[in-house]
Specification:
2 strands, 15 helices, mainly alpha, two-stranded antiparallel ribbon, 2 domains, Arc Repressor Mutant, subunit A
């Protein structure tokens, strides 16, 4: 988590630039803030490759999307022609339409939630359609009726007249954020995260973006605060991922070191009784896994029999160990045999 704290400190200059100056100075510094956000997004993408690339490619997808969004914001702020501004605007939309999808997939992955294997393909198809609609001007005027490039205190801004399909993007983002809220609540209610801290990190990551997005929808603001809030979300999601990684490593250490402690000690009859009394609390799936372990089946065999993934099995294992008062499969089998 200390790595995440250092990354979080890196965005403080951006917050100071966007929130601590007078209104006129703030407008003048917009392009600098956008450039800083784009550079920071690039650095976070590089860090992502180092930290989590091999284990969760959706982080790379998310960080790449945010880099594209912030690069688009910066290019727009320094554009001198309508053509360049349109390209920059399309670039920011390209990242924006795929960014919520990456967030959803990350949350599903880190919470070990089950989802249909075609879900990423379906979401990608929807995203591509929405992007082509947002990028259709001047070939079509369903999203924008007209666009004019204006300059405010040295910063380029697109003055837009919206078309009949512009509301589509609002409902597109609303649907994504609603889905993220449902997943976050469901995750917290079903306790699919190991600690309360992880649940808080997840909820904050979702809450920050929703608040900023709603603010920009309801209030006319020249500065794109999403360029900063997306980076904050990156840091929170990295924190969530690293927190889960640390817990899994600790669980692995405990599972290796604990057997000698209880095998050499006198039999703990209270623990045996507790395990026996709490077996009925297992869900049908957990009970199947428990019985498979008693039969001597390996993790691979259990996954094949139940048609589940490794992360799903780990999630069930944690629930089984928690309910039966043990910390590892070896301890589970040891006390079960004493039952």
């Amino acid at each position: 988590m200390c790595k995440v704290s250092k990354l979080f400190l890196a965005i403080l200059p951006l917050l100071l630039l966007s929130g601590c100056n007078s209104i006129g100075d703030k407008a003048m510094s917009m392009s600098i803030v956008y450039l800083s956000a784009a550079v920071l997004s690039l650095l976070l993408l590089i860090a992502c490759f180092v930290l989590v690339f091999k284990k969760n490619i959706w982080f790379v997808f998310l960080f790449s999307s945010i880099l594209v969004v912030n690069t688009g914001y910066w290019l727009l702020s320094v554009s001198k022609t309508v053509e360049t501004a349109l390209f920059a605007n399309r670039l920011s939309y390209l990242g924006s339409v795929f960014l919520p999808m990456a967030m959803i997939m990350i949350i599903l992955k880190v919470t070990n939630a089950n989802y249909h294997k075609y879900l990423p393909h379906i979401l990608s198809a929807v995203n591509i359609f929405v992007f082509f609609v947002t990028a259709s001007y001047p070939y079509s005027k369903v999203y924008y009726k007209s666009i004019e490039l204006i300059t405010i205190n040295g910063v380029s801004v697109l003055e837009k007249a919206y078309g009949s399909w512009h509301g589509m993007y609002f409902f597109f983002l609303l649907a994504y954020f609603s889905a993220i809220i449902v997943i976050a609540i469901r995750t917290t209610m079903k306790k699919k995260l190991n600690t309360r801290t992880q649940s808080v990190i997840l909820c904050i990551a979702v809450f920050v973006n929703i608040c900023v997005w709603l603010l920009e929808q309801l209030v006319r603001i020249d500065f794109e605060f999403l360029s900063v809030s997306y980076i904050i979300s990156e840091l929170f999601l990295i924190g969530l991922y690293l927190s889960i990684e640390d817990n899994e490593k600790n669980d692995a250490v405990n599972s290796v070191s604990s057997p000698t402690a209880y095998e050499d000690a006198p039999l703990d009859e209270a623990k045996v009784i507790f395990l026996k009394e709490h077996i009925p609390t297992l869900t049908p799936t957990e009970a199947k896994i428990y019985n498979y372990y008693l039969e001597g089946k390996s993790s691979k065999e259990v996954m094949e029999l139940l048609t589940i993934k490794e992360n799903t099995l780990k999630y069930h294992n944690k629930n089984i160990y928690s309910k039966l008062g043990v910390s590892s499969r070896k301890e589970l089998l040891y006390f079960s045999k004493m039952n």
